[in-house]
Write a structure and sequence with these properties.
Layout: H1 3-35, H2 41-66, H3 70-81, H4 85-108
Helix pairs in contact: 1-2, 1-4, 2-3, 3-4
């Protein structure tokens, strides 16, 4: 994996959790708006919208650089629109990055044959 691909995945991972948290907070704010006089929906909606747009841009860059199949790319996109999905995406991206590091070290040390 080259440095640009690793950077694209790292950026996507970094934005996943804040995007997921903003979505959950927006849902909570929506419930509070209807049950109390508290109305943070406009502010949280804007924050979530900006984070979602950034997520989609980073997702598109990661898809382009990693050459994910359609199923993988669709999974990461769907995780952005599902409550708590951003946290799942972050975990999956973290695991995949750790696996890539382990595989790279194994290839470098000659433990694994490269095809």
């Amino acid at each position: 994996m080259d440095i640009k691909t690793a950077s694209a995945l790292h950026r996507l991972r970094l934005i996943s959790a804040p995007e997921g948290a903003s979505f959950v907070l927006l849902i909570i704010a929506s419930v509070l708006k209807r049950t109390t006089d508290f109305n943070a929906v406009p502010a949280l909606g804007m924050i979530h919208g900006i984070l979602f747009i950034i997520y989609v841009l980073f997702w598109a860059d990661a898809w382009n650089r990693t050459r994910w199949d359609f199923k993988t790319a669709a999974l990461y996109f769907v995780l952005a629109v599902v409550p708590l999905g951003g946290f799942v995406a972050e975990r999956k991206l973290k695991r995949s990055a750790e696996d890539a590091v382990i595989a790279s070290r194994a290839r470098r040390e000659g433990v694994v044959d490269t095809v």
